[in-house]
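Hi P.,

Sorry for the delay on this. The queue was packed all week, but I finally got your sequence through. Input first:
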Amino acid sequence: MPPDAPRDHGRRAVLWTRHARQPLLEAAARLARLDVVGVGSPERGRSQQLAAAFDAEPLDDLRSALVTADADLLLLADAGDFGATASPDDADAAATAHERGLRIVTLEPVPAAALYLGGPAGAGWMRGHAGARPIDAIFPAPLLRHAPAFRALHDVLPTFGEPRALSIILRSRPEESSLPAALFAAADLLLSLVGEPESLHAIHTPPAAGRPASSGPGETLRSLEGHLVANARFDDGRAAALLVSDHAAAYAREILLLGEAGQLRITDDGWTWLGSDGKAIDEHRVPAADAPAAAAVLADALNRLLDPAIPNPAPIDHATVLSTAQAALLSARTRQPESPATLRRLAQRRRPAEHGRAATARGLGRSS
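Then the structure:
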C-alpha cells in the first residue's frame, strides 16, 4: 500500500510505547496508514511528548485505554507490567477490549508466562467472557510465519518435506524488538515447522561483559536483553538451533531448513530452495519496502489484521509457545536441558508462588 495514501476508516489506533521505539512506530504507522488517535507510555512523563509527535491524545493509563478508547487497534509496543503478574485485572481489561472489538497487537509476549494463562490460580487469560477468552484479543506481531515470504511457501513446504535439522536466527537492535519478543517468535516458528521439542538446552549472554547476574533470565518473558542460543532435541532424532538477539547491528530474520529434499533458506527478502545436488529448484523474491526492515514487517502484519477481506490468523497455542520459550529461559538458568511439556504441565496445576519456588529451587540446585 502506498505510504502517502489517505488514511482509511477502520484504522484508528492507540499506541503504547517507550520513546526509543518512536521511529519504528512512526514508520510502521505511515506504511499501514494508521490514524493514530491516542498515545501513552509506561515511562513516567513521556506520554505528552510522544502524543504530540503523532498529533494524538496523550494517555496515562493502559488498562483504561483498553476499556474506553475509541479505536480499532491498540498497538502494545512496550508492555511494561501488563500481563506480567498473576492478577486478573489485565485479562479482564483485555476481555472488555475484545467485547468492544478492539484488537490488541503486541510486540511483547502477553501474558509474560504460561503460568498466567490458567490453572488453579492463573490470571484468567483462558477464562471465558461472554463466549470469548481474553487471550483471543491478543495478536502477537510480527511473526515470521505470517510474513510475505512464508505466505509464498504455502505450496512449497509440503513438497520440500519434513526437515531433519533447522536453524532460526532472529536479530534486531533494542529499539526494534526485544529478546523476549524474539524468543517468543522463534518458539512459535519452531512449533509451526517441526512441533514441540523434547528438550531445549540454552545459554544466555548479556549484551556486554561484566553485567550483573540480575540481568540474566527470570521467570517471565520480560526485562531480558542480550543474546540467547538454544539447541532443541526431538524424540525422533531431529534437531534445531535458535539464535535470538536484541543487540545485533541490524534487523534480520533467517531460517534454514535441511532435509532429504535439500536446503530451504528463508528470509524476509524471499526464499531459495537448493536440491541435495546443490542445484536451484525454486526461489521467490519479496518486493523491497521503502522503509526500514523492522517497520516494514510490522506494517505488513498490521495491514493484514486491519484488512476486512483477510481472515484473522489462526489462534496461537499460547500455552505451548510460552512453555517452549520459558523452557529456554529455565535452561539458561539451570544450565541443563529443560522440557517444554513438563513446564506446561507444571503451569496447569501449580499456583504461581509454588511454581516460582520450585523453579528457583531447581535452578539454585543445578547451578551450584
